[in-house]
Amino acid sequence: MDSVSIYLPGILLAYSAFLISIASPGPNVLAVIGTSMDVGRKSGMALALGVSCGSFCWAMFTVLGLSALLSTYAMALTAIKVGGGVYLLWLAYKSFKAARQKSDLTAKALEGGDRSPTGYFLRGLIIQMTNPKAALAWIAIISIGLTEGAPIWVGMAIVVGTSVLSVVIHLIYAISFSTPVMVHLYGKARRVIQLALGSFFAFAGIKLLSSRFSD
């Protein structure tokens, strides 16, 4: 029980980083919203599940890869956390910059014509798995929750928790944002969300960097 209390704060921070990272729609989420609006909720939900499956795969690859790396090179955790902290600060900068822009939320369905639900699922999976930024994002998220000497269950807890959040949030986007009214309302709140996103990433990045330099 004591071991759980030791690693729980890092796990919850990793959950928070992931949750807030998808609070501001990127290309994948906008594709889910646009597909729900233009094609239908069923297609949008299938695409959302595909994107979530891709997120799960990236999370698993990251945890297994970092665990293997750390078992061989213990000092690698410092480099990973520094890199993750710098990337989080970059995301904070991008979020603050986006908050200053006046452009509204633009959601469009995927090009290439209508597909079956299976087709949309596979398309979502492929889009997520071929996104190079996903790898950097997951390294940053996993590194927040991992501490030196952390057992494998810590990484698995992050994978399971973020996977559940991914499915739930993406499905909420597909169901709730299937009307132009919801997209309009979300667009009105975009700047506030981007500012909150930037503030959190700045906090997480500074915390990650300070934890390494204070060791």
Structure description:
It is a single chain. This protein is mainly alpha-helical and 215 residues long. It has one domain (27-213). It has 9 helices and no strands. The longest helix is centred in the first third of the chain and has 32 residues, at 41-72.
Output the structural class.
mainly alpha
The shape is: globular
Mean pLDDT: 77
Count of discrete domains: 1
Note the gap between the termini. 25 Å
- The helicity comes to over 70%
Low-confidence segments, given as residue ranges, are none
* H-E string: HHHHHHHHH
Strand percentage lies at under 5%
Radius of gyration: 18 Å
Largest sheet: none
Q: Work out the helix count.
A: 9
Number of strands: 0
Q: What would the keywords be for this entry?
A:
0% strand
Topology record:
Blueprint: H1 2-21, H2 27-38, H3 41-72, H4 76-100, H5 117-129, H6 132-145, H7 152-176, H8 180-188, H9 190-213
Give a short synopsis of this structure.
The chain is an all-alpha fold and 215 residues long.
